[in-house]
């Protein structure tokens, strides 16, 4: 069952990824071919108008979709998936409309030549597919398949969404192992060995589907799609030889990656805050922002190559030179026959081809330093200003472009002092910037291995990644954490803060508003009252005056368990009322409620109508209560409670007293995710901030 | 600090691995060269005597070391590491003597041509190094470095041992990413993102060290070691092309791997039980067993090639043919000039070279089916009977040999019906058997990728691994689980059994012997009594007749926390006694105990002498008590308690009552690892077995 789902997720992700690639390659390819036609006939201005116009239409298409139908489809979606797997549900994140807009929006945005990738969106698409399959259909359209409904529990849904995210990465980079590791290192919060295996299965299906289509399309049946093999940026044709001295440029690349990555994170944070202000103003400003960025991008990509000087073709090169085709390494552009424009090779092409060209090995004299510098500058600016606009956008490709530029530039500068090929310098540069900004290590390493198919490069890639991450971490958090913070998602970190060891959960519970408990058999009016006047999602159920089976005590109170708001609402909706105060039998409950109803998470108290007569009746909460909640004793430290909360994946954690006596409540408090956020605690206990600072100074 | 340690672990593991390789290659190489000399002169019997004698001496050396100095050094050590990381300490597992015996024992055993690998032992060596560094020196020799002592807590030690295990795998296969994943998938129980990164750093150091030495030794400075590059079994020279039809043999290999792997597990279980009986009889039988296996191995390896018919050399091959060198693909052995003996190529060589030869690609006619069949049969027998003898032995290489044999055999049988090279069939066979027996997926996939450097093989490797693991899992548990079970280690599984949901911890606590609690200020005589008459390692501390700060109750009892046996012993040793029953001040404790003393885990009650006068005095346990133990309410299900126990990594879990009243004890029970083992619970609740079976039938 779970395996069938994992298979379907892989299959559908693979199919949709192929579709997206097919559409992008064809749209972008034919667009470029037409532009080159104009340039060949020296109708430069018409070419610009055509290029900018086509890009504007494509951007507009993507942006209108995003703005009008699914605002959640904008951006990469990875931070929200990360938050979801941590236990935070963002509304409408995995719906059908989001999926459809994400697919067509990505096609539009990437084909429009904007500085963004389809990688992040593919991860989101994979997760959407997984979520829809796992829930048995879209939530809001009620086309639920009953045979899948038993899947609708949090853990299974999280698992299948992890599979979806892995499949997405796998489809984006054609990197099955990298996809699994990406989910593990960056996205997932909880992880089990069984999940590792199922994720791996999904990505295996994706890679088989992708390979099948590439094989099928290889002979030109799919238009411009499918030329080339399974490996996206193959650099295996170069022999990697390096001496001890080559370690110096490698270290430099690592440090550069860390510094530039953290600067990028810092600036992106600023830009996104400004963009947020613009985007809040309504649909029109959002749309205009996208279109402005599109025009700016088109002008940069088209006009800047004119600044470059034409280079004569090297007759010894095996590749065709010059070319006017869609891809190819030596673009003729505005040059005479036998000459090529190196900046056009990098700018006036699809993003994928740009990466391929800058990674190209055994072409040491192809790019002029000044061209690489312009390329780097352009993509720095575009990378910062494109990410936040209202289209589906991934961060991977912009970073690869930026990073490869300074990597290759360093290679050119090193010249004959180094044994490493310039193409490999570009690869290392790309890896370093990604590590410096996204702060991943193992998964990036494998993704780059699978992207470039050069195992001998692995040791230096590892060094670069480790240095870049270390340097970056000393400045600011990773780009995903920054976006999570900007979106205000209450993400629970793996490690408690040091000052959390000095605060007990009892102290924290005392600082909160008083706990609301319900009796085992409670009056309807009180339930309605509590539901209307509080926002809690769970309430402890306490029985008074019970006789415990052991001990001579009478008049004891008993912690019966925890009841969810959704179940209280269900009980009210179903009029599960009793005239007298009595406990019910199990069969009564079974008759009244189906498990499907109890699995429902929606339902608002406002939708429930209760008459005045009913208000005086009772509800037996016992059968609806979760009698086995996780608890902590009030004397436990906050740090330990946080570890429990996150490791076991809780929503509510009950606090029980350490004292045992008559008159003491059997539950003294309750902790939720919001209570455990460092920010919320520090606002209640400001002195902890100071002690924290003092600790850091020491 | 932690990074320095991770660096040192990587560095030392890399150095020692190089040393071991160097020694093995030279000893085994010169031994083989001498044997070939005898054979060239047709002095076959002298050759056999020399071969068997040399092997016997080497095996004897390894076995004497193991039997006399460190019995824990026998076997691979991976199951014990896995158990340690799950929370089970095996005595003497990570000591200095174990490390030294493991190093020299491995050299002896592998050089003796036994059917075992140095891979498992290298993992253990890495872990030993990590443990010794992490503890600041060997435990029993008291050469502790004070600057490292603060590391001596369980979590940090576990982390660094994980680094060590990864470094070991990396050093064994020269697979840095594979090493990290192996630790993650197979060895570790708890895992954090930060640990992933540190592990990765260790393996990066290992790979840099290995590469440095290989570079250094490439020119022949290290005798026979160091020829060849970083990739152990390179098959990147063959282009992988396959059609849809090739999926059939791939599926067959996967199924074969699963079936054979589980049969191997089954038979190994039987053999190990017999061996256990022999080994229990004393040192001499152990030693004799090893020597018998050695002689049997030597005779098989030397004599069986005479059964094979000599093959004429193919003049079109680029490799030298025939050879009499240490390595090389076409061994002349007993054949005339221009002819080679294909079975000698596989058998009369080092294990590494045998793998290289059977993986060799673009040599479709090299091996006769009958030779492959003999090879397979020999290694099946040797693989089963070699593993349990008293020498350091790894499972990886025997499985690779066995698996590659039937893989290549299938390739030969397929003949021209397939597009996949026979060498790749051998690779797939090896992968399938490992997956079928060890049940790993992602890490095996990466290890094979890094071993063979052929990325295009990845999709089919994934399919093979998934099928083999699925098939194998339907028969029996993985080989490591079988060994864990045989050794009787109480390993806690990730998933609770289904029937655990039907039992509460309160019921389980009632079935146990009554709980022993201590008062906050306790009489010495009672402490001595409790320590002598129980074997528990932790005791709840309960204060009677306290006045809680809230509530009008008086005469309440308070759960103060949990005290460890080691701390009680320390208190007795230090004579931390009070004349009157009073609570102490914090400065008194600080004066009396240093944190180093409190970190001590040893100390036995038998070593403590208490006078009769002292027996009547009191000890204030409050300052020595852990006041923040994890707790569960008695009504929680066993399944949930187990999840908490394992996820948070506990040793003791206190059970608190759900009733709140005077006269109820504030702690009703305590759970330990042994209590949570399925086997122990089922013996107390036999009816659960039946309900479990019924559930499985449905």
UniProtKB/TrEMBL annotation, chains A, B:
- The protein's superkingdom reads Eukaryota
Q: What is this protein called?
A: Uncharacterized protein
The species is Manihot esculenta (Cassava)
